[in-house]
UniProtKB/TrEMBL annotation:
<keyword id="KW-0418">Kinase</keyword>
<keyword id="KW-0677">Repeat</keyword>
<dbReference type="Pfam" id="PF07714">
    <property type="entry name" value="PK_Tyr_Ser-Thr"/>
</dbReference>
<dbReference type="InterPro" id="IPR051681">
    <property type="entry name" value="Ser/Thr_Kinases-Pseudokinases"/>
</dbReference>
<dbReference type="GO" id="GO:0005737">
    <property type="term" value="C:cytoplasm"/>
</dbReference>
<keyword id="KW-0723">Serine/threonine-protein kinase</keyword>
<dbReference type="InterPro" id="IPR002110">
    <property type="entry name" value="Ankyrin_rpt"/>
</dbReference>
<dbReference type="InterPro" id="IPR011009">
    <property type="entry name" value="Kinase-like_dom_sf"/>
</dbReference>
<protein>
    <recommendedName>
        <fullName>non-specific serine/threonine protein kinase</fullName>
        <ecNumber>2.7.11.1</ecNumber>
    </recommendedName>
</protein>
<dbReference type="Pfam" id="PF12796">
    <property type="entry name" value="Ank_2"/>
</dbReference>
<feature type="region of interest" description="Disordered">
    <location>
        <begin position="1"/>
        <end position="30"/>
    </location>
</feature>
<feature type="binding site">
    <location>
        <position position="192"/>
    </location>
    <ligand>
        <name>ATP</name>
    </ligand>
</feature>
<dbReference type="InterPro" id="IPR000719">
    <property type="entry name" value="Prot_kinase_dom"/>
</dbReference>
<dbReference type="InterPro" id="IPR017441">
    <property type="entry name" value="Protein_kinase_ATP_BS"/>
</dbReference>
<keyword id="KW-0808">Transferase</keyword>
<dbReference type="GO" id="GO:0004674">
    <property type="term" value="F:protein serine/threonine kinase activity"/>
</dbReference>
<feature type="domain" description="Protein kinase">
    <location>
        <begin position="165"/>
        <end position="438"/>
    </location>
</feature>
Amino acid sequence: MSGAEEAAGSGSGSGSGAGGSGGGGGEARRRFDDKGLVARTSLILWHTHQNDAAAVRKLLEEDGALVNARDYDSRTPLHVAALHGWQEVAECLVANGADVNAQDRWQNTPLADAEGAKKHAMIDLLKKHGGLTYGKTGSHFEAKTIPPPLTNKADWEINPLELDFTKAIIIGKGSFGEILKANWRGTPIAVKRILPSLSDDRLVIQDFKHEVNLLIKLRHPNIVQFLGAVTETKPLMLITEFLRGGDLHQYLKEKGSLSPVTAVNFALDIARGMAYLHNEPNVIIHRDLKPRNILLVNTAANHLKVGDFGLSKIIKSQHANDVYKMTGETGSYRYMAPEVFKHRKYDRKVDIFSFAMILYEMLEGDPPFSNYEPYEAAKYVADGHRPAFRSKGHISELKDLTELCWDADINLRPSFLEILKRLEKIKETLSSHDHHWHLFSQ
């Protein structure tokens, strides 16, 4: 968690007794600024990833310090642009004072990423501006080199002796193992630990390796951060950041239906993480998007991340509209798209359907078809039925978006990038002082 995010989270709790009303106002202003910084940091990294030079330029005009913003792996916007070969964005960042030799968690510079990805034009650009392959203290041609990110197992293989389970707490269980809150080098972490009795099971090992190989490729503010794994000794363990806020399932169980503003903000975080997964060069379909797999960064519930990629599938896509034949009935029945339940060919739009069911649950406060058992609910949905909106206070645009996302025709369901645009417009409406939105009635 970044310093700004830590401050934003801790500031949401009860204040200390010290200070008068003036001090309280200053504290509130600091909390607001911290949250704003987190949002802007996420935005510039997001727009860089999307190759949106105009949006990056606008953000830098508003706040020049964002040029060297850092994500959880200490990667800057220039690292992201270099990895993807986004020339115009990189030139904009450099012109605005980006540190061309900034080093990430693995001590790699943007040039190291560009060379690893074989982005030759980007390599030339960075070298022109003084870029070194491995940072200010060395270069690609020196004897002692640091390998490019994620190419060497040593980058993420964790010595199990470094894991402290003395005060471990079980925070989740599954058929293959358990998830514990533990400590690693003094930091709270989440550990997915495979049951010793299954550590020799070929399929379990295969699924475990699949999830590790997937997670080491992912870096996004709305995706749970992978820290490392234990693969050379048993039990096998996968280590990620520990998010203090718990999961969305428990949050909704305690809070019930969310206000339109909160629902939109939650939906934006989920959609940002999913848009990243769906728009990588190799499309990643989550296939098990549900409230239990969406985690709250802190108890202030102001930032969400998508997690649990055990059922995710990497697709080497040549065309955006490719449809794939994959295993039916993958994922959780209550949030399952009808084409999956029916064992038909499906694509990334299955995640859009699951997103719609989650959005419905955030608005209504109850899981879709909560009076049905999960399997029966999925069967009912596959027969063409959809949950009914009972509350009368919903924003019509949110209801319309939900219904579009769960359309039986997968071609009518919008992409997550389209969903983001619609959610941003709804948020602007909610944020306006006029509040001229239309309420629908049953």
